[in-house]
Structure formats: C-alpha cells, structure tokens
Amino acid sequence: MALIFVIEDNDSIREAVSGYLKLSDYEVEEFEGLSGVKEAMASRNPELLILDAMLPDGDGFIFAKEIRQKSDIPIIFMTARESESDRITGFEVGADDYVVKPFSPKELVLRVGAVLKRTGTALPQKKMHGWTLGGQVLTTDEDSHKAMLNNQLLKLTAAEWKILLYLSSNGGAVVSREQILDRCLEYSFEGYDRTVDTHIKNLRAKLQNPDWIETIRGYGYRFAGNST
C-alpha cells in the first residue's frame, strides 16, 4: 500500500485525514511539525506528502521548495492560506494540488488518488503479505484469496477471508465492528454486531491463537501480527 506522510499540527484535522486515508487502504505516518520529516523520508520512502503551509516549527512552502530541489515526490498542501497569491506560491514551490481548510476528508482522499495516478507513483500494491506472532507464520495472497498458517492452507469462508485481509492491511490500527460490517460483510444495519463477533471467533479458532486478533473493548478489533 502507498505510504503517505501527513504533516499537520492540528490534532483533530491530522487524525481525521489519517483515519480516512487508512480506510482507503493507505499506510499513514503522522507528524505534528517539520521536525523529523526529512529523516523519516530517508528511511521510509513515502509516495506522497500532505503538508500544512503554516507549522509551529517552520514554513511549509519553504520546506516544499527544499524537498523539490532533490525529490519529485508528490505534495498536496492542506492549509488555511486561501488567497490567490498563496495558491500560486504553493504551485510555484512544487505542489501537485492545493486544498484549502475547511475541507472534506473524503474529497482529500479522492485528490490523493488522483495525484498518485497522475504522477505515476501509484505503485502496484504488494499482493502477498506475511506476519509472525508467537512462533507462527501467517501469509496471505490477495490474487488467489488464500491464507497459509505455518505453510498449511487455512480453510476460510469468504467472509473470514475478507475480515482477515481487512484487519491485517490496516497496519495495527483499531477497526470498529461497523467498519467491518461495511467493508467486509456489506451490512449497514443495527443488530449485526454479533455477526462480526461470530466471524472473529471462528477466524481465531482457525488461526489457532486468539492473540492474532485483539479485542478493543467498546470499539472493535486490532490485528496483532508483526509484518515480515
């Protein structure tokens, strides 16, 4: 999945944007300011930056200009600076898109997809994944819809496969029952929470270790495997 850096000092905005991106299967790393971003870019190789223009430890425009001198990584400005001159400055220093606050997080996610497609950095997603936990090795193959535990094929139902793939692809983030219903089971009605719990119970049994999927009381579940 594409890795996106979100650089925004407003906690609520940053968390909302990151949440929507994760729901759209992007990997996200959050920063409250510019500190540490360059170092992180050197080791993590993000596919796109979402950057505020006004940060507590520096100017986003200046930072983007510095990045542009040595990298063509896509940049989307996410800022309250809405004047025409600010927009022009943003594009002059190398922005691929410019979003003015307040904005719709859903629209921003669509813009992210469009920029990645337009710039040719929407790399093919890795179709095979592996995780370890307590001496067990779990692998999934998205093309064949197969999961292997210690090299043994798991006999999963279609619903169990979708839930396993969805949980594991969220990078350790907590997902709610409602999200699982919507993304994996296509249910959107009240009263189906127990259906999710039943699928999780069966999935844990087939994984031979309940620790693969943590229960987060009052909210939902989290995949606990360590990516290999």
Automatic annotation (TrEMBL):
Statement: the UniProt record of this protein carries the keyword Transcription regulation: yes
Keywords: DNA-binding, Phosphoprotein, Transcription, Transcription regulation, Two-component regulatory system
Database matches in InterPro entries: CheY-like_superfamily, OmpR/PhoB-type_DNA-bd, Sig_transdc_resp-reg_C-effctor, Sig_transdc_resp-reg_receiver, WalR-like, WH-like_DNA-bd_sf
Domain OmpR/PhoB-type: 128-225
Coiled coil: none
Annotated SUPFAM superfamilies: C-terminal effector domain of the bipartite response regulators, CheY-like
Protein's UniProt keywords contain Phosphoprotein: yes
Entry's Gene Ontology cellular component terms: cytosol; protein-DNA complex
Gene3D superfamilies attached to this UniProt entry: 3.40.50.2300, 6.10.250.690, Winged helix-like DNA-binding domain superfamily/Winged helix DNA-binding domain
Response regulatory domain boundaries: 3-116
Transmembrane segment boundaries: none
Residues carrying 4-aspartylphosphate: 52
One MF term in the entry's GO annotations: phosphorelay response regulator activity
Signal sequence region: none
GO biological processes: regulation of DNA-templated transcription
DNA-binding region(s), residue ranges: 128-225
Identification of the protein by name: Response regulator transcription factor
Natural source organism: Oceanispirochaeta crateris
